[in-house]
Amino acid sequence: MKPNEPTELTFWDHLDALRQTIIHIACAVVVLMLLAFCFKDELFGVILAPKEGDFCTYRFFAWLGQVLHISGLEAQTLPVKLINTQLSGQFLTHMSVSFYAGILLASPYILYQLFHFVSPALYQNEKKYSRRLIFWSYLLFLTGVLFSYFLIFPFTFRFLSTYQVSPEVENTIVLSSYIDTLNMLSLMMGITFEIPVLTWLLAKLGILSADFMAKYRKHAWVLAMILAAIITPTSDVFTMLIVTFPIVLLYEISIGVVRHTVKRKQTEEN
Fold first, then answer.
1. What is the pTM of this model?
2. Which residues of the chain have pLDDT under 50?
3. 202 and 240: one domain?
């Protein structure tokens, strides 16, 4: 056999490569998890910041409300107290939050390792599309998480934590409920921001067209408003519109992406 001649890997070779990839990913996550665990004050300073009345989002919209003369956006001290009801609750919360932080911090390396594992089976043009797909998927997901942290979660928390069925019922929020809500909204918005990537894939497969999306544009806008109402269960219409706008914008961007993808596909076929 010639030295430069490529060899075909066996099933066990692929399994060994997968094992090495998993080990590398696990080591990266564990190291960054321990790093996040050691910086407890900084970590929970970020996690618990939206519950404070002087959070940057509240201050910005208080200023915006004064400029536009919109009432109800004033920054105010939130009369909310977080409690822990289990003996090991705070320690387990610290561990779980550190784990999620480790995954988030290691996500670029995780994507690199996964691409490195599957890339030998891809053609050159497939590698090019895969790199773009990974880059934009990660960027959009991270944008959705940040959008949730700075906009969705603060307004959702302020509404739900101050909502009362009776003045006799005091709101005392369990720490695990706070963390779970933050994780859920971050995941939902991260997935929502993947709309352009999903439509691009469907267009590449010939399933979706720009004309179809433009035809049902109004239906999509209504669905965006319904989704915004579900994500932000507030009585404030202004807040719901803030959430609706980026979803509608993503849909309109997706139409342009699909139209460009279909035209390019037709050009390559001709």
1. 0.82
2. 1-5
3. yes
